[in-house]
Amino acid sequence: MHVQPGMRCASFDGDGDRIVYFYKTKDGKFSLLDGDKIATLFASFLSDLVKSSGLKLNLGLVQTAYANGSSTNYITEIMKVPVACVPTGVKHLHHKAGDFDIGVYFEANGHGTVLFSDAAQKLILMQASNNSLDENSRHASVQLATTMNMINQ
């Protein structure tokens, strides 16, 4: 397959335990999304859905000391999403992500996921099935529920 500039691509890594996202820039340069970028994109997407849904959920992002400082600043200052810092290793990231209703974490190498607490899952599913909500809130809730069901926690 010939990758064209602007095309969004994904591939499993060598042992199949993560997806690697990449694209070509307008000037034809290869660009790989690292864990910081992936986590930021997930947090941005989920933050927008939580706000639009009207649900009062605590969304947070977990990083290690190896995280790009610019991403941390962007997440906290621009996106207004809390960031927790833990020692390196998925076991530390995963544990801390569980402190949030929705916890996002990705190591720099791209290993990571999003966790939804049991309480958050129940609220999201309940709201997604609430036909008395305004269209925007219900649509965001349905998107949250669909996203939650697609993610391997």
Describe this structure in words.
The longest helix has 19 residues, at 35-53. This protein has five helices and seven strands; from the N terminus they run E-E-E-H-E-H-E-H-E-E-H-H. It starts with 7 loop residues before the first strand and ends with a helix. It is α/β, with parallel strands linked by helices. The radius of gyration is 16 Å and the shape is globular. This is Phosphoacetylglucosamine mutase-like. One of its GO terms (biological process) is UDP-N-acetylglucosamine biosynthetic process. It holds the Pfam family AMG1_III. Residues 34-153 form the Phosphoacetylglucosamine mutase AMG1 domain.
Summarize this, please?
The chain has 5 helices and 7 strands, in the order βββαβαβαββαα. With 153 residues, it is an alpha/beta fold. α4 crosses α5.
Question: Radius of gyration, Cα only, in angstroms?
Answer: 16 Å
**Helix percentage:** 40-55%
Largest sheet: 4 strands, mixed
Give the termini separation.
Answer: 31 Å
The overall pLDDT average reads 92
Are there runs of 5+ residues with pLDDT below 50, and where?
A: none
Structural class of the helix and strand makeup?
alpha/beta
The coarse overall form would be globular
Share of β-strand residues: 15-25%
Count the DSSP helices: 5
Q: How many strands in all? A: 7
Series of H and E elements = EEEHEHEHEEHH
Strand order of the largest sheet: 5-4-6-7
Organism: Plakobranchus ocellatus
GO molecular function, one term: phosphoacetylglucosamine mutase activity
Pfam family, one: AMG1_III
GO biological process, one term: UDP-N-acetylglucosamine biosynthetic process
